[in-house]
Prior knowledge:
Blueprint: E1 6-11, H1 15-24, E2 32-35, H2 47-51, E3 55-62, E4 70-74, H3 96-112, E5 119-122, E6 135-141, H4 144-147, H5 150-166, E7 174-179, H6 186-194, E8 197-203, H7 212-220, E9 228-231, H8 239-251, E10 256-258, H9 259-263
Parallel strand pairs: 1-2, 1-3, 3-6, 4-5, 7-8, 7-9, 9-10
Antiparallel strand pairs: 4-6
Helix pairs in contact: 1-5, 3-5
Amino acid sequence: MAYEKFLIIASKPDKAGINITTALSQFGNFKFYLADKEIIYSENLDKEKINSCDFVIFASKHRSESNEKVLTVHSPGNWRIAELGGESGKVCRSSALFSKYLFEKLLENAATYNVKDYKISMEATHHGPLIDKPCVFIEIGSTENEWADRKAAFVIAKTISEAILNFKVNPYHEIAIAIGGPHYCPNFNKIQGKSNIAISHVIAQYAAPITEEIIKEAVEKTEEEVDFALLDWKGMGKAEQRNEILKILDKLYIRYKRTSEITKGY
């Protein structure tokens, strides 16, 4: 699926978002939109501006309890109760291919510009907003120091610019939704960064019990046709929880592979 009109959205009160969009101006004439309030709440966004584009990239701060230095990529949405924007049980449309390209570029630029004190990570699908356009979040975390870090913002801005200018659909990638594991997806990170597999939505273990509705939502909100579900087997809870997920996948005729099967090759 080709995307031609990209819109980058940040929030005026968000130091990281402003830092990234300021850095982006040196890379070209991209279409920006700075919202007056937090971008995780759908009601704070201008629907007309969003409807005028094909794909939305949210540039944002990342917060965590650990205050870890991290650059992250993830799809927005809520598998369960919507506590931070969006709607309960609904997720945004996600492009596995674009998310993979963005993540690969982020890894590449972080290495080139030596931001090795930052961890580069996917996150499980979480928080709002809920919009009717394919979209992705790219974030700097997790404290005021990192949000104001010009080098980190430069790396994110360069990553966004390269993704917008150079992204092309790779028909050879296999498309997957990902199930299980912790929020920062260590096993999925390896696969998204190094394999032929492109991951769209990630359903972390904490979304359990993982229902048929949740899995259907992940598949239906993936822009590309899903080839299989990628399972972080040890991160899927107890045996009965794993068996329940396998039953649902069988019922929906969705093939599945364990992350351990993929990562043996490297």
